[in-house]
Amino acid sequence: MSDLKIFSENKTVSNKRVIVRLDLNVPIKDSKIEDYTRITAIEPFINKLIKDKAKIILLTHLGRPKGKVVPELSLKPILNYLEKKLNGNIHFYKDKINDKAVDISNRLKPGETLLIENIRFFKEEENDDETFAKNLSKLGDIFINEAFSCSHRKQASIHKITKFIDSYGGPILKKEIESINLIIKNKKKPVTCIIGGSKVSTKINILSSLLENAENLIIIGAMANNFLKFKGANIGASIVEKGSENTVKNIYDLAEKNKCNIIIPLDYNTSLNLHGNPVYKSLKDIGSKDMILDIGKNTIDLINETIDKSNTVFWNGPAGYYENENFSTGSICIAKKIAENTNSKSLISIVGGGDTIAAIKNTRLENSFTHLSTAGGAFLESLEGKELPGIKVLKKN
Asked: Measured between alpha carbons, how far is 339 from 225 in angstroms, rounded to an integer?
């Protein structure tokens, strides 16, 4: 962390134009925001810049418009929300990044904000185009990257822009990196990692890395089906990844080499379809038409016991098909246990990934963890030991 340029909140920004790259890629349906987590996380920092009389230029993307203007991916709903939450005037710019845009940024009054329309409406953004990045840099005097979740991508507003402007990481980006170090470098043992998701192949590198850094690896969600099948268990009609046997074998071999304990589910809540009601089954009772859709009570007890013996917990990926609340019990129980131990036993808890956050959205536990990461892929790539392009460019020369 010491070699990164991190923005100090004591830095004088009065009357300076400050470009902040955010990740406000939030789910929007019928022009309504469905999850505010990423927006509420950045509000305090933007309001601090407003209080300090900066002129703020906000850059973010929404969805994948692939360099074209897609009206349903406009930032207008985000603008409407920010108008209520920010403590100063906010303007919206929907045109090209040219001299007109620079002129508007210069004419901002101290404490005012300019939101630039979806940066991915410009094809040059995803191409990491140098001229486009240079034009973006002319909108400000300082650049702050608060989009750790996008920093694994080489894109103009994250990567190439830093060539042309005094650039820093922001407080959320700093916290993301610190939380990764709590799992890898500055860890408090024993470390337990709880990993969900569906495909083992997409998480093989992260699982391999975690095996070297953790005492316990708990596999949940549809991913666990692959491990159960490998062990010869009947998983009925549950989702399983074809050809995962070698990958699972390699994970078990690595676990043995690193003396890491792998824990897989003992029992389940099942159904004959995704929209059904839960039917409790032990492993031996699973029928050919049963779908495993959540972990059962004995598995929850085992996970709770493991968390009780841990000083650091990292959790990424829900325990079941949480989209049907009948199968969200496992995820909610895990969240409650981690939150409880964070508050009462000073457990270091890092919880991350969009699906995980969605699974615990209505529990009001979001502020009960050491760190709640919305970064997803970037966070996992960092845990694998990869240097992210958007972070590398923030290093001191």
From this structure: 27
| Residues designated catalytic | 38, 199, 354, 377
State which residues of the chain have pLDDT below 50: none
* C-alpha dihedral sign at 73, 77, 80, 82: negative
CA distance 237 to 270: 10
Q: How many residues does the chain have?
A: 397
Whether 17-171 and 178-383 share one fold: the answer is yes
Query: What CATH class does 17-171 carry?
Result: alpha beta
178-383: CATH topology is Rossmann fold (3.40.50)
Give which of 280, 274, 344 is closest to 307, Cα–Cα. 344
Q: Where are the domains of the chain?
A: 17-171, 178-383
**pTM for this model (two decimals):** 0.87
Q: What percent of the chain has pLDDT over 90?
A: 79
For residue range 269-301, list pLDDT tens digits in order.
999 999 999 999 998 899 999 999 999 999 999
